[in-house]
Amino acid sequence: MITSYSNPKLKMVRELMNRSRMRRKAGAFVIEGIRMFLETPKELIREVYVSESFHEKHPEIKGETVSEPVFKKLSDTQNPQGIIAVVGMPEFKLKDLLRKKEGLYIILERLQDPGNLGTIVRTAEAAGAECIIMDKDTADLYSPKVVRSTMGSVYRVPCFYTEDLPGTVDEMKEKGIMIYAADLKGDRFFHEEEYGRKTAFLIGNEGNGLKEETLGMADFRIKIPMKGKTESLNAAVAASLLMYAYMTQQMM
Known about the structure:
The protein is an alpha/beta fold. It has two domains: 8-88, CATH 3.30.1330.30; 94-251, Alpha/beta knot (3-Layer(aba) Sandwich), CATH 3.40.1280. It is built from eleven helices and eleven strands. The strands form two sheets. It has a seven-stranded parallel beta sheet, with helices on both faces. The radius of gyration is 20 Å and the shape is elongated.
C-alpha cells in the first residue's frame, strides 16, 4: 500500500494531472472516477490506483492501493470516487479521415474554456462528427477538467492538434471539404444553408471569435440569429447548433 504523498509514482501522476508538457511527453493523461475508468479501452490503461475503501468495495478491479488520506490529497475532485488511472492517449490518423467520401469536421481556434472543449467533444460524438481539429492555442484536451466533461467521448472522437491551421484547412479543401466559419457578421443564417456531404465548421475563441485571417480561409461565413441584447452565444452552444443542423440535413 502507498502511504506517502511523496511516493515517486504518485509524483508522476500529479505531474500528468498538472502539466500539459508532461502529458505530451509521456503520451498519457490521468482519468478519475469509476465511470471514466469503465469507459476507457483496456489497452490504453497503464496504471491504476485505488483507495482503501474502493478496494474493499471493488476487489475485482486490480490496482495499487493508496491510503485514504493520501488518495484524497491526490484526487483532483472535491468528492473522490476512489479510483485514478494513467491512460495512454488514443491514436488516430487525420489523413485517413480526410479521405472519406462524407463526414462532418469541427475546427477549433484558440478555444480556452475546458468545459466548452469537453462539451464540444461529447456533442461531436452524438452528432456523428468524423473528428475535431484544434490549433496549438486551444485548451489541452487531456487536462483533467476537459477529460471529465467529455464523459468518455475523448476515446471515441478522433482529435488532432495542428501546428499549421492554414495548411490543414488547405488540405481539407483539397479533399473536397467545404469550410463554414461561425461569424457574428456572417452573410447567411446557419439554418438556411444546404450543407454538403463533406462539411467543416470553424469555431473561434469564446471572447474574440475567429481571427480575420482564419475567416478569410472559409468558403462561407454563417451566423446564428439572436434576439435581445446578447452579443454572442457560448462557443459550445454555437458548435452544437451547427453540428445538429448538419446532422438533421443528412438524415432527411
